[in-house]
Amino acid sequence: MNAISIVIGSICILMIAYRLYGTFFTRKVLKLSDDTPTPAHTLKDGKDYVPTNKWVAFGHHFAAIAAAGPLVGPILAAQFGYLPGLLWLLIGAVVGGAVHDAVVLFASMRRNGQSLSEVAKQELGPVAGFCTGLAMLFIITITMAGLSMVVLHALENNPWGTFAVAITIPIAMGVGLFYKKTGNLKLASTIGFILLLIGVFAGPSIQDTVVGDWLTFDTSTLSVILPIYAFFAAALPVWLLLAPRDYLSSFMKIGVFIALIVGVFIINPAIEFPAVTEFIGGGGPILAGPVWPFISITIACGAISGFHAFIGSGTTPKMINRWSDIKPVAFGAMLVECLVAIMALIAATALQPGDYFAINSKPEVFATLGMSTVHLPELSQEIGLDLEGRTGGAVTLAVGMTYIFTKIPWFENLAPYFFQFVIMFEAVFILTAIDAGTRVSRYLIQDFFGELYKPLKRVDWIPGTIFASALACFMWGYLLFSGDIGSVWALFGVSNQLMASIGLIIGATVILRVADKRRYMLTCLIPLAYLFVTVNYAGYWMVKNVYLNPDASGYNVLNAVLSIIMLVLGIIIMFTAARNWIKTFNHPRAQLESLSS
Q1: Which residues does residue 320 pair with via DSSP β-bridges, in sequence order?
Q2: Reduced to 3 states, what is the DSSP secondary structure of residue 2?
Q3: Could you count the other beta carbons within 10 Å of the beta carbon of residue 520?
């Protein structure tokens, strides 16, 4: 198997799915019509509700949903071989992810761009609304820990990478200030991108200096630094750090993956992994569980992701200019993200299996696998970094992409620069997600605790903001400090896919109300049935075999408690929705249309 065949086949499948299934779902199922104005027009305020060109809205939505998840998940899942991940990405994105993203955006727009918990409250009742809000708080907390875990091993004892990532903070702030003062976006973007490249190329000059010693951290230190950073970063104005860094990272994301696709077509690397490995039944060094349910838990973003519901019921519904824009913005962006995830899978499986497992396993575990490294010692020497045992997925992606790029003529001697650029590229995405996620978590905490103490609901009350931010950072920081990539990423995967299940539950409810044919509800029920069973079995498996197993490396009672709470919340929401569906089926169509308005 070669990479070009996978890329061309995947692009064809995704384009056909967008043209045929995307059109059917948006026109026939959701009955999108541009005759009715969107909330961006009816509630236009020039700040939150702003009608936006569909391609600008697409860019914002894609940048928000395609963070580290589609990069890391496929790399970890390569443990099972290239075929399970590839099949789940293509089937999951078309049948589940694109449908989920489109219907959640539609449901939020029907309710004037309200959050998913408010939509659940109005569609399913107060109990489901409360459970959805609580689940969102748990999920965003776990998401921050899961994404941050990826950074730890990428920057561990890596002063060059730490410098390149750290320098993006003042660069982004400078871009934000420059743009605010001059209004010249093109010049600000150009200067920012050039400075990012300078930051990467300046790395070797500080690596063996006193500054390099100051920037050399172990994982324990980094797991403390990241939450502290998030506490202060989340307090800064959005325009000063979050927005300019998100904007710059979007350029990096597009550029890096266009370069990767071009590189694949130039050298056509062979896929060195088998279609399936010996670990499909479980017992792997990266993921302990079997291919099902863990392929669908490990690869979340890229196939179907509940995290997208935060975006689809957050900023995006307030930007949509026309109802028909839902198709390219939501359905289309999900399929593009699927392609990004497939490219990450190719980067991982183009490595020799021995090299891949040496990076993603602890040295003592790798020694028991009976494998040998092939190109890794040479790559380690070229990059100037010991690559073995750097779990988390980020290093594997950087090594895989570096391996492909350095096969291109004239690029043979640039391995360390490619590697550190990709590390910075990944870390910038994660830091942006941490900033935004900590803010969302802070708002959710203020909403919940504000019911007990009213001043906490005021976002302009500084003591309340400090308390909520500190609590949010402490919660995900504790998970980060006490976990490992296998257990934390699995916890993230379960919580993320539970959120996707909730999104599909709400979507099925909305479709039942608005669609001409009630059987169209199956567009949500089919992926929901698979995902709900998968999530609950994966959660049960992790609680029984890992979190409450004293002999397991991921033994963690707190993770078990969090898993059980989330699964119970999901069951309550499902039960409430089922009762609602039964009642809805008993309504004549005329009454149903009046209820849905």
Answers
A1: 52
A2: strand
A3: 20
Which 3 state secondary structure label does DSSP give 31?
A: coil
Whether 9 and 264 have beta carbons less than 8 Å apart is answered as no
Q: What is the DSSP letter of 37?
A: P
Decide which of 3.90.1690, 1.20.1730, 1.25.10, 1.10.150 is the CATH code for 3-596. Answer: 1.20.1730
Largest CA distance in the chain: 76
Are residues 473 and 230 in contact, defined by beta-carbon separation less than 8 angstroms? yes
Sequence-distant (6+) residues with CB within 8 A of 522 are: none
Tens-of-pLDDT digits for all 597 residues of the chain?
A: 788 999 999 999 999 999 999 999 999 999 988 889 999 898 887 766 888 888 878 877 887 787 777 888 899 899 999 999 999 999 999 999 999 999 999 999 998 888 888 888 888 888 888 888 888 888 888 888 877 877 777 787 888 778 877 888 888 888 888 877 887 777 887 888 888 778 777 877 877 788 888 888 887 888 888 888 888 877 777 667 766 776 677 667 777 778 888 888 888 888 999 999 999 988 888 888 899 999 998 887 889 988 888 888 877 888 889 999 999 999 999 999 999 899 889 989 988 899 899 888 888 888 888 888 888 888 888 887 788 887 777 788 888 888 888 888 778 778 888 887 787 777 777 777 777 777 777 877 877 777 777 777 776 677 888 888 888 889 888 878 876 655 676 777 888 888 899 999 999 999 988 888 888 999 999 999 999 999 999 999 989 888 888 887 778 888 888 889 889 988 999 999 998 888 887 765 545 444 454
Q: Which amino acid is at 229?
A: Y
313, 267, 294: which is closest to 492 by C-alpha?
294
| Unique residue bearing structure tokens 């490992």 | 484
CA angle at residue 97 from 597 to 36, to 5 degrees?
Answer: 30
Euclidean distance between CA atoms 428 and 450, whole angstroms: 33
The rounded distance, in Å, linking the Cα atoms of 356 and 76 is: 10
